[in-house]
Amino acid sequence: MNAPKSDFLKVLTERGYIHQTSDLEGIDAAAAEGRLTTYVGYDCTGPSLHVGHLLSIMMLHWLQKTGAGRPITLMGGGTTRVGDPSGKDESRKLLTVEQIEANKESIRTVFSRFIGFGDGRQDATMIDNAEWLTKLNYIEFLRDVGRHFSVNRMLSFDSVKLRLEREHELSFLEFNYMILQAYDFVELNKRYGCILQMGGSDQWGNIVNGIDLGRRLGTPQLYALTCPLLTTASGAKMGKTASGAQMGKTASGAQMGKTASGAQMGKTASGAQMGKTASGAKMGKTASGAVWLNADMLSPYDYWQFWRNTEDADVVRFLKLFTILPMDEIERLAALQGAEVNEAKKVLATEATALLHGREAAELAAETARKTFEQGTLAESLPTIEVPSSVLDAGLGVLTAFGPEYAKLVPSTSEARRQVKSGGLKVNDQPVADERGVLRATDLTAEGVIKLSFGKKKHVLLRPV
C-alpha cells in the first residue's frame, strides 16, 4: 500500500500502533470519509483495566481525534461469563453476575480520560454485549450462527491450540468464546454500523472469525486491525500477573493469517517488537503486582514512577505510543543523549500520567519525585497508608508493613524477607537489617510518619490514625 490517505492511519503508522490488518486500503478509505465506526472489547474480569489495555484505548483516542469515525467501547458483561482462553494456560475464574456488574462500573471511568462520549455522529458510546448475548436462544443460535464455524478451523487458532498442546484443560464453555466474539462484531454492525474491530495481536483469530461470520451472513465489508501485544515480566499480557506465552512480535511484510474460511487475511505492518523492552526484559509489572489504571488500585505517583523507570532505548517508542505529544517534540526528545535522556523519561512519565489522571496529579507526582530524589527531602505527597495507632503501639512487623496488607511495596512477606537479605528495604532511609524487627510509634519522623522504601524509587508513608 502507498502512503495512507487518512490522518488516522498516518498517525497509527508513524507512531507504531499497527501490527496486523485485514485490508489496510479499505480501512484507510473508510477513515478518510469519516465512517470508520470501530469497536474494542473489554471483558470485566477485574475492577480495573491495566496498562496492557492502553494501546487499544489510545487507538480509539486517535480514531476520534482524527475524525476517522465513531469509537465504541464494548463491555463484556456477557462474554465475561464465559471467559476468553487467549494466552491462558487455565480457565478463568467464573465470576458472579454481581461481580461482573461491579467490575464494569469500576472500569467505566477510565475511558472518558481518552475519548469523548455523547450523542454526536463521532462521539464515543459504551455498550454491553450482555444486551444481546444473554437473550440468545441456544438452539436457534446453533442453527443460525454455530453452523458457520468449523471445529477443525477453531482448533487451529492459538487460543485453543496452545492450550491443547500444553495438555491443559479447555472447557466447552471457553471453546464457545470465539463464536460469541464473532457474533458481537456482526451484532454491532447490524445495530450501530460498526465495520472495524481493533484489539491486541492475540485477538487476531477471534476478530477474523467475526469478519468471516459477517461475510457468511451477508455483511461482506468488515475489517480487523490489531496492535502489538505487550507482556509482563512473567510473560503474560502487559499489566497482568497471570502467566502466559509471549506474544506480539511483528515481522515486517510477513503474511499473518487466514479467515475462518481459509482466505488469506493480510500482512503485518513494519514495527518494533513490543513484547519486551530494548534490553530483552519483559515489562509491565510493578514490585507489588499489575500496573492498574484505576487510581484506587495504583496511585498516580506509582503510575508516574512506572513510566519514569523506562529503559533508555524504549523512551522514544513509548512517547509515540502512550502520549499525544506532537511528533516534532518527540523527535527533539529523541535527540537527547547521555544523562539528558532522564529528562525525556520525566516528560514521558508526566504526559502519560496526565492523560490518565489529569495534569494536576501528573505534575504533583513529578514534583514529589523531584523533592524525594533530587532534594532528598520527605515529600508529604508520597503515597500514604493510614495505620491504627493501636497497631504501632503493639508493634507492626516490618515484613508485614512492606507487604500487601499495608504498604504493598512487595507482593508477600516471603518476598519482603528476601529483599531484607539483599538490602532492598529501608525504614526512614535506613536499611532493614532484622526481618523480625517491628515498627513502633518511636519510629515516627518529625513529620509524624514512617517512611518505607523499596529500592531508590518506591516509597510509602505510614501515618498513624
- Helix-residue proportion: 25-40%
Terminal CA distance reads 64 Å
Oligomeric composition of the shown chains? single chain
* Annotation, overall tally of beta strands: 15
- Largest β sheet strand count, sense and barrel closure: 6 strands, mixed
Shape: globular
Number of distinct helices: 19
What is the percentage of strand-forming residues? 5-15%
Secondary structure class reads alpha/beta
Kindly report the average pLDDT value: 82
Q: What is the strand arrangement across the widest sheet?
A: 1-6-5-2-3-4
- Outline the low-pLDDT stretches: 231-237, 239-276, 279-287
Taking all Cα atoms into account, the compactness measure Rg is 24 Å
What can be said about this structure in brief?
The protein is α/β, with parallel strands linked by helices and 465 residues long. 39% of the residues lie in helices and 12% in strands.
